[in-house]
Amino acid sequence: MKIILSGPANNSNCKAVAEGLVHADLLAKYYTSVAIFPGSIWDCLGNIKAFSEIKRKRFDPILKDYIKSAPSYEIARMLSNKFGFSNLTKGEDSLFCINKINLKHDKRVAASLLNSKKKGVEGVFCYEDVASFSFKESKRLGLKNLYELPIGYWRSARRLLEIETEKWPAWASTIPGFEDSDEKLMRKDEEIRLSDRIFVASSFTAKTLEEYPGKLPPVELVPYGFPPVIQKSVQDSNLKSNQKGPLKLLFVGSLSQRKGIANMFSAVEKVKNHVQLTVVGRKINDYCPALDAALTNHTWIPTLPNEKILELMRAHDVLLFPSLFEGFGLVITESMSQGTPVITTDRTAGKEFIIHGKNGWLVEAGSTTAIKEQIESLIGRRDVIEQVSQEALITARNRPWEKYCQDIAEAVRKELLI
């Protein structure tokens, strides 16, 4: 009883699914784009600063015998963006755009399924935008279609984010997704229609699926896990602000109003004499003067390797993550695992882990006032932050990535037995 896993993005949650399936003896093959293993030439290249991003493609060696990679187009996309040839990656029709890479990947997996079935494969596990062709072929062959929706359903996204373009017109250019073609949106709906079971990592994502117009397949909530929890040291404590210094706030994520950054900058401006904000993340595009103006008032770091982000989290008092539409928000669990509590909204995975005022803080999505008031309540209250920090660490210890690996593998096993 084995399945094919299909995930070209190979982010943390996809790797965790793969590892869980391997340990449960359920994985036949894992089709992805770029796969780097410790000690390889590509891994060594990642030690060079200009190519450090490739480290994000590193896999656990236990997956080496299962992975079927096809790296050329994804590497070309990464290099195009790195060296300023973004015209090769924009839209849905450029040579190395995400849409074309995903379609190539999906067709490649679909073409492999007949042979896989002959070898005993009973299903395929796919992600949004890379499942349409695979699921159609899988259905034809009588295999199970397991689907993960890593971010909320597109109809819900459009409804909620169109409100933002009206509220914050100067920031509208930072909200992606409205340019998706009808063809791409139809594929998204087809992926859901062809699914036998949909996995989501947050109750918010599950709620957005209520706007799907057809018969919705069963939806199962399996929250992601936390990175290894750090042991807080005297050095880490010294990196934090002193009792009389400004409250050190951190934001990590793409610079889009989907993440609520206009609300964040506006709230911080109202308490600017008492806080210090650091922003880590890339711009969506270069056409937002409002964003450019906001960034000049704060420390902005376009990109950092993950280990440096974790280090930066430990150096700050609180992570701000006021997202307006988020399937999960891995920075929430990353920050909590580093002992840095989080202010986030009810449209992230915050509700899965955070009890307001105990191990973090939940605020109303889209409310600048709520963000401002929550920040104000923490100014000069390092005792409160330290107490919440300790509770965040306890929460993180209780759900490591290994627990997610076990839970998702067990959910897959149950579905295959139905």
Describe the structure.
There is one protein chain. The longest helix is centred in the N-terminal third of the chain and has 21 residues, at 98-118. Helix 13 links the parallel strand 11 and strand 12 (342-345). The strands form two sheets. The chain has a seven-stranded parallel β-sheet with strand order 3-2-1-4-5-6-7, with helices on both faces. The protein has a six-stranded parallel β-sheet with strand order 10-9-8-11-12-13, sandwiched between helices. It has helices spanning 12-23, 41-45, 72-82, 98-118, 132-141, 154-167, 182-194, 203-208, 234-239, 261-270, 289-295, 306-314, 330-337, 350-353, 368-378, 382-398, 401-417, and strands at residues 2-6, 27-32, 67-69, 121-127, 144-148, 197-200, 219-221, 247-252, 275-280, 299-301, 318-321, 342-345, 361-363. Helices cover 43% and strands 14% of the residues. The chain is α/β, with parallel strands linked by helices.
